Amino acid sequence: MSNMAINQTIFLTLVRTIGERTGARILIDSIRSFGEAMSQCPIWLFEANPQIAPCQSMENMGVQVLPLSVPDTVKHYFFADKVYACAQAEALATMKVQSLIWIDPSCLVIKPPLLFDLGQSFDAAVRPVHIRNVGLPPTEPLDGFWKKIYKAVGVKDVQTTVEIFVDVQRIRSYFNSHAFAINPSKGALSQWLDCFEALVCDQGFQSSSCKDERHQIFLHQAILSALLTSSLDPKRIRILPPDYNYPYNLHQSVPLDRRALALNELVCIAYEDRPLNPQVVDDIIIHEPLRSWLVTNTAPS
């Protein structure tokens, strides 16, 4: 693979805590071990907390460690550092970068995530959210939360819908943000930051439609979904299949006919606080060679 081909795709992740640093190491190891054609893509690791020990050991894995500074005005807010990291990555990306792939440190790559490589045909690759949470069915009128978000991105409403994986219902387009890919030339990530800052600092919005923790937690995800839906050609948004971002953290809630039987059949998973060590996992099959790899790379929880 040529240097130019390698540089067209960059993985991004973020470390805020010591626990996330461990997760990031496992994630990066999994990309290098199971990514095949994508295994040697550059990885940018953003450090959001200068108080934890630096991630210099990651640099030996071909990782570029980047300090992240988030303004005090929004630093306190849920996932502000994630939005800032993505916007900073977009600003740093050269013209030849076609795919910035964000992956949370609580995720694992199990097979080559080839559909995150956008190529010439797509501008974004996303999964629908797994559960409805703050999402709205198209038959329901907009609430104050979504009305304000759509106004911020310059539309009155959206016409597209997605089917959510666990709840199995259709809602207005609303995407999961554990892992996604964006073409940086579209400027969507800097727009994400602008809208996020504006809505976090809007005291009227924060004290009304966004005053509860659930809406605050998912504000960043709702804004990104609204931006992608309103600013990109729907045909250039790749809706990823269910083996991407599989919600292992929600595994017991997944309907039986959609539930994965073996971890090996999935491309990437979100596990959050669930254990990965096969010695303590009892609700999904883990075949070799992944089984031995997980035993080596994770400790029992």
Blueprint (SSEs and pairs):
Elements: H1 3-7, E1 9-15, H2 18-34, E2 43-47, E3 63-67, H3 72-75, H4 80-92, E4 99-103, E5 107-109, E6 124-126, H5 144-153, E7 161-163, E8 170-172, E9 179-182, H6 188-200, H7 203-206, H8 213-231, E10 237-239, E11 246-247, E12 268-270, H9 290-297
Parallel strand pairs: 1-2, 1-4, 2-3, 6-10, 11-12
Antiparallel strand pairs: 4-9, 5-12, 6-9, 7-8
Helix pairs in contact: 4-6, 5-6, 5-8, 6-8
CATH superfamily heading of the domain at 3-135 and 174-186 and 234-297: Spore Coat Polysaccharide Biosynthesis Protein SpsA, Chain A
Largest sheet: 7 strands, mixed
According to CATH, the fold-level topology of the domain at 3-135 and 174-186 and 234-297 is Spore Coat Polysaccharide Biosynthesis Protein SpsA, Chain A
Total number of helices: 9
Q: What is the CATH architecture descriptor of the domain at 3-135 and 174-186 and 234-297?
A: Alpha-Beta Complex
Poorly predicted sequence stretches spanning 5 or more consecutive residues = 1-7
Question: Would you tell me the overall average pLDDT?
Answer: 93
CATH class of the domain at 3-135 and 174-186 and 234-297: Alpha Beta
- DSSP strand (E) fraction? 15-25%
Strand order of the largest sheet: 3-2-1-4-9-6-10
Report how far apart the termini are: 38 Å
